[in-house]
């Protein structure tokens, strides 16, 4: 596998709306990000992905773009963006923007024009079909946010348009070469400005199985998940190869795909040496326990499932490419609230558990992608009623749960576990009002645990979660260990032992052994014989006697061991 300029970095996702507000309007913004660049540099971050900051009606928090060439005034100005690029560059931080091109906003001029004249050129930018009122829709697919993927074209009673996501997110017709040309032009315009690359949103959806047809209904609503259609859709990689050739490759840009539902044999074409993307997120852990009926039927993740999913992904990437490893993002609950048993991170030993989970994920082969607040162990938030919830997918899933017979209180438990708001509460900088995020009224309620859980407190505490993440990042940058951490082969260690997740990272010179006691109970762990040097430990103790580690609950260590 070819080595790339970004392989050794540590990446960080910013959700700008919730990161840092600079002007007191309660909404995080670009000037806020600029203010925090030193923080990111000192943490050791080399790549930053910004969730969308383009002009948008914010029907889906910026994932509905009405102008790809401008910054939404709520987030700042183009001058702010240019300053951010310059200032980031000074600190050796590459800025990655979100590329949301499966759909645009219904307020984008292309869609407005398509509504005005569906038979004109812009009608071909979207999927518009004749469908007189009362007639059957072109197909029975269910939008990701609930309800049919079809809605009446504004101003027309006899035409419908396709939206796989929200009705304010009409799908762009990638079969139309004009659309593809317009997208590539926009990408290059941004890369010319000095962007390091893009995170590519929901990209598998750009290829539809055509012509539109029904699939067997999979819920009582008579609709069928888009996932079913994606199985039949052929040829997404032809579009993506073309895109890479016309854009990213010319700039040696970084690109990370948000890819779900890929066909396994296609992995090399996604992230191999000549792949269309530099890398893609590994969502294997995210997908554990999911149930097509909806969030209410999801199952909690066990340590064994987590381990199996992580190791399977490491095997898949071996010799092919390089995944991005995450425990959370802006669409997912907080990793510590999800992958640790209920209540584990709140009680005593909670910090140890958080560090163990973070360490196990961070040390896997691939690019570690931290999500804002992960480095201080931010947790899920709680809402008592659905009225407090902002996330459009959580609102839909609440209804799905009610229809399935759950009580409102039970449905709220489901929402509290999986709502996207969990990751979107403001960053907890300190224990002043609103956690130092804003002097105004935050757009989304700050997690009340900020009085204890905040960056400022963790800076002052040597054994905080934050200091542990700093040590992880420092290890990745350590010239002695970097080769093993970045490129070393992953080899599971004693995978048959329940609630133990351990693996070697075998580099050219150095071999590391990563060990996590994935349970709130102590245990004995046999270690390979002979010299072990402890590089990282989430607890003060390291109780080793005759090659047996007497591990404490949630203990996590990284050892430098003799290659064998
Ligand atoms: O998410 C794509 C995606 O597949 C989502 O349906 C995801 O599974 C869902 O949000 C979970 O509730 C991307 C973005 O990350 C997300 O924020 C956007 O809402 C979505 O695309 C539409 O642009
Ligand atoms: Ca603001």
Description of the structure:
By secondary structure, this protein is an alpha/beta fold. It is built from 19 helices and 23 strands. An 8-stranded parallel beta barrel has the order 1-2-5-10-12-13-14-15. Helix 14 (392-403) packs antiparallel against helix 15 (408-418). It is globular, with a radius of gyration of 24 Å. The chain starts with 10 loop residues before the first strand and ends with a strand. The model has no long low-confidence stretch (mean pLDDT 97). Bound molecules: 1-O-alpha-D-glucopyranosyl-D-fructose and calcium ion. Residues 21-23, 25, 27, 29 line the site of calcium ion (CA).
- Beta-strand residue percentage: 15-25%
The beta-strand count equals 23
Shape: globular
Oligomerization state: single chain
Straight-line N-to-C gap: 24 Å
The largest sheet is: 8 strands, parallel, barrel
Class of secondary structure makeup: alpha/beta
Biggest sheet: strands side by side, in what order?
1-2-5-10-12-13-14-15
Helix % is 25-40%
Ligands bound here?
1-O-alpha-D-glucopyranosyl-D-fructose, calcium ion
Number of helical regions = 19
> Average pLDDT across residues?
97
State Rg.
24 Å
């Amino acid at each position: 596998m070819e080595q790339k300029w970004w392989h050794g970095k540590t990446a960080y996702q910013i959700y700008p709306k919730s990161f840092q507000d600079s002007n007191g309007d309660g909404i995080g913004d670009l000037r806020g990000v600029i203010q925090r660049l030193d923080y990111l540099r000192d943490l050791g971050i080399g790549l930053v992905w910004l969730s969308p900051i383009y002009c948008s009606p914010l029907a889906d928090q910026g994932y509905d773009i009405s102008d790809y060439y401008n910054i939404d005034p709520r987030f700042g100005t183009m001058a702010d963006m240019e300053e951010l690029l310059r200032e980031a560059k000074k600190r050796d931080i590459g800025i990655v923007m979100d590329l949301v091109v499966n759909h645009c906003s219904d307020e984008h001029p292309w869609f407005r024009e398509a509504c005005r004249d569906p038979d004109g050129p812009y009608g071909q930018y979207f999927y518009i079909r004749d469908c007189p009122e009362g007639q059957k829709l072109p197909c029975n697919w269910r939008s990701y946010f609930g309800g049919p993927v079809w809605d009446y074209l504004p101003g027309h009673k006899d035409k419908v348009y396709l939206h796989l996501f929200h009705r304010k997110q009409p799908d762009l017709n990638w079969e139309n070469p004009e659309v593809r040309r317009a997208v590539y032009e926009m990408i290059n315009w941004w890369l010319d400005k000095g962007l390091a690359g893009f995170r590519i949103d929901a990209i598998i959806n750009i290829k539809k199985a055509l012509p539109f047809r029904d699939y067997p209904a999979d819920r009582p609503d008579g609709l069928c998940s888009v996932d079913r259609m994606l199985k039949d859709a052929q040829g997404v990689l032809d579009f993506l190869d073309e895109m890479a050739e016309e854009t990213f490759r010319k700039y040696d840009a970084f690109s990370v795909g948000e890819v779900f539902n890929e066909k396994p044999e296609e992995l090399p074409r996604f992230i191999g040496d000549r792949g269309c993307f530099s890398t893609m997120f590994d969502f294997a852990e995210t997908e554990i326990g999911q149930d097509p009926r909806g969030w209410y039927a999801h199952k909690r993740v066990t340590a064994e499932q987590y381990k199996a999913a992580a190791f399977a992904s490491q095997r898949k990437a071996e010799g092919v490419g390089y995944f991005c490893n995450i425990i959370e993002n802006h669409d997912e609950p907080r990793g510590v609230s999800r992958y640790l048993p209920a209540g584990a991170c709140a009680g005593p030993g909670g910090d140890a558990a958080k560090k163990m989970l973070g360490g196990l994920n961070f040390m896997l082969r691939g690019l570690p992608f931290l999500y804002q607040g992960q480095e201080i162990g931010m947790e899920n938030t709680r809402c008592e009623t659905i009225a407090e919830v902002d996330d459009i997918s959580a609102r839909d899933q609440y209804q799905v749960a009610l229809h399935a017979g759950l009580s409102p209180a039970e449905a709220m438990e489901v929402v509290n576990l999986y709502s996207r708001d969990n990751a979107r509460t403001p960053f907890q900088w300190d224990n002043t009002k609103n956690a130092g995020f804003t002097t105004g009224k935050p757009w989304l309620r700050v997690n009340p645990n900020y009085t204890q859980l905040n960056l400022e407190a963790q800076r002052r505490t040597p054994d905080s979660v934050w200091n542990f993440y700093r040590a992880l990042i420092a290890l990745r940058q350590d010239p002695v260990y970097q080769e093993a951490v970045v490129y070393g082969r992953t080899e599971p260690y004693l995978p048959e032992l329940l609630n133990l997740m351990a693996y070697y990272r075998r580099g050219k010179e150095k071999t590391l052994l990563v060990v996590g006691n994935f349970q709130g109970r102590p245990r004995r762990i046999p270690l390979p014989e002979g010299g072990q040097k402890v590089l990282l430990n989430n607890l003060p103790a390291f109780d080793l006697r005759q090659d047996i580690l007497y591990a404490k609950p949630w203990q996590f260590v990284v050892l430098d061991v003799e290659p064998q």
